[in-house]
Amino acid sequence: MTSPEEPRVRLPQLKLDELLEELQARIDAARSTQDRVHSLLEAVLAVGRELDLEQALHRIVEAAAVLVDAEYAALGVIGPDGKRLSGFHTVGVGEEQIAAIGPYPEGHGILGELIRHPQPLRLAKISGHPASYGFPPGHPPMSSFLGVPIRVRDEVFGNLYLTEKRGGLEFDEEDESVLSTLAVAAGVAIDNARLYEDSRLRERWLLANAEISHSLMSGSDRAESLGLIAERARDISGSALAAVALPMEDAKSLTVEIAVGVDADAHRGLVLPVHETLIGLAYTATAPVTSDDVVHDPRISQEPPRFGGLGPAVAVPIGTGAGGVRGVVMVAREAGRPVFLQRETEMLQGFAAQAAIAMELAERRQDVQQIALLEDRDRIARDLHDLAIQRLFATGMTLQSAGRFIEHPEASERVLRAVDDLDETIKIIRSTIFGLRARSGAAGSGLRSRAVRAAGEAAPVLGFAPSVRMEGLLDTDVPAEIADHIMAVLSEALTNVARHAHAGRAQVVLTTDGHEVSLKVSDDGVGLAPDGRRSGLRNMAERAAKLGGRLEVTSPDGGGTTLEWRVPLPAE
Fold it and tell me: pLDDT by residue for the chain (572 residues), tens digit each?
């Protein structure tokens, strides 16, 4: 028989079990929280140890996915305009899936919502938000969503995006709190990585400046020093192409002296106007000019085609407005690469400014050497005139006087011949003195300037400005007589293009290697008419033959006409 006291014994036992279960649940929750806090601290330490920015960003995405148990995670870097994503780092999506999805998102839909409103966003279902408009083909299905902004010094650097909490669960307040804490640590880690990256980058620019200064001050060839500037600018800025352009004598156009990298041959030697080109705009503005996509930039002339496969670009002046712009250095990255940030442009501008100082110091050093040389030549000329010529003249007068006392005909003839030789020697010395004291020709009289001027004068008749490219020491190696023939041939060739070709584009290429000079004029017109007059071409051919050269006229498969006039240069 059951005792009436038994129920009073069991009831407290049941309450105790419930209390123990609740206590165990709270212990498990506390342990889970402790584990999560421990994982968060480990993630913060792991992220903070990274000094490479790209590695730090990838480590942040990995840590975020682990902390909130998300299947997919991404970090979107906001671009300079503050409206689009310029970078996207993902975890959970394979390479094949990325290829199937296509280009990375730019910041529309839910991703753009965080850009416009940088506050934590938690959704049970992505499709339920008004800003959502679906996924592209090949994109894995995603439902739950958690996003938080990453701030670096009160500036939104980017956003963390987490989707698909494992187990079909939804992200909760604790997930949001943990992810927000990680975002704060991520901002500090990104700032540290950027500062470290900037310091390393500045160090490389300083070393490059020192190398260029040493090259210029040690008397290296100008082309070698300019090539060093282009190489270092391309390498340090992570660009595919670098070019250095210098102003011509008339200051109305620039010539690309050096180009290295992708399609460098298409840029090298080009003569560019000071407008409608990236390089020309930087020269006239005496300030950096950037382009997010140099191929489709409406400010920049695309003729001749030379930017294929390139995207972001920046051109900075070499020097400042106060000290005079000595040229422009331009760098361009491949299409799809990040645009040039302001800090990158500032570093490149500082590098160009230091290069300008080095160039000026080198030129001043050359001027001092040139002055010393001219003074030495003037002294030699003065000594020759005051000493050598006077003595030779006196000796000639003495021999001439003595010749009257010589009775032997042959001896008298020899003395008179010696007097004539002395007169000839005096003439030679006087010619040498004149050469030592002669001044250089007037500015703008060089072959380069004359060719650019001729192309510019032909533009109104052609209906467009022909592109001009020049390479080699044209003003130094090409004699005046050959230069005159070249100008005559160039004028005739451009006139023929204007009259007969019906062309929309023409190109002039003038080059020399020190042994031969070549003039090539090509157009995209109708080609040579079978029954057309040939008097102009015959004159060009006769000029070439007279100088030991040749003329070739061809019609390429793509249409148009190519005229190439070549003559050898006289040996020194």
Answer: 445 555 444 545 556 556 556 555 555 544 554 555 555 666 666 666 667 778 888 888 888 888 888 888 888 888 777 777 777 888 888 777 777 777 777 777 788 888 888 889 888 888 888 877 777 776 788 888 988 888 888 788 888 888 988 888 888 888 888 888 888 888 888 888 778 888 888 888 888 888 877 877 776 667 777 888 888 889 988 899 999 988 887 667 888 888 899 888 888 888 888 887 888 888 888 889 999 888 888 888 777 788 888 989 999 998 875 557 888 999 999 988 888 888 888 888 888 888 877 777 777 776 777 777 777 777 777 777 767 777 777 777 777 777 777 777 787 778 778 877 777 777 777 666 665 555 444 445 678 888 888 888 888 778 888 888 888 888 888 888 899 899 889 988 888 888 888 888 889 999 998 889 999 999 988 887 666 556 678 888 988 999 999 999 988 877 889 999 999 998 76
CB 218 within 8 A of CB 236: no
User: Rounded CA gap, 364 and 375, in Å?
Assistant: 16
Helical residues (DSSP H) of 218-275, grouped into ranges: 222-237, 264-267
Sequence-ordered list of residues with C-beta below 8 angstroms from that of 351, at least 6 positions apart, any chain = 205, 208, 209, 232, 233, 236
CB 345 within 8 Å of CB 353: no
- Cα–Cα–Cα angle for 413, 416, 418, rounded to 5 degrees: 110
The answer to whether residues 117 and 82 touch, using CB atoms and an 8 Å cutoff, is no
DSSP assignment string, 287-302: S-EEES-TTS-TTS--
Q: How far apart are CA 179 and CA 163, in angstroms?
A: 13
Token pair recorded at residue 214: 């040493």
Q: CA–CA distance from 498 to each of 167, 305, 523, 533, 534 (Å)?
A: 75, 22, 10, 15, 15
CA atoms of 552 and 98, how far apart (whole Å): 53
Q: Specify the amino acid at residue 317.
A: P
Angstrom distance (rounded) from CA 375 to CA 369: 10
Structure tokens at 451: 């060719």
State the pTM of this model. Answer: 0.62
Query: Around 133, how many Cα atoms within 13 Å sit in the side-chain half-sphere?
Result: 8
For 509-547, the three-class secondary structure string (H helix, E strand, C coil) is: EEEECCCEEEEEEEECCCCCCCCCCCHHHHHHHHHHHHC
Phi, psi of 300 (to 5 degrees): -115, 130
3-state DSSP assignment of residue 100: helix
Q: What residues have CB less than 8 Å from 358, skipping those under 6 apart?
A: 209, 212, 213, 216, 217
Instruction: Report angle CA 33, 34, 39 to the nearest 5 degrees.
Output: 95
- Alpha carbon of residue 511 to chain centroid: 24
| CB 527, CB 462: distance < 8 Å | no
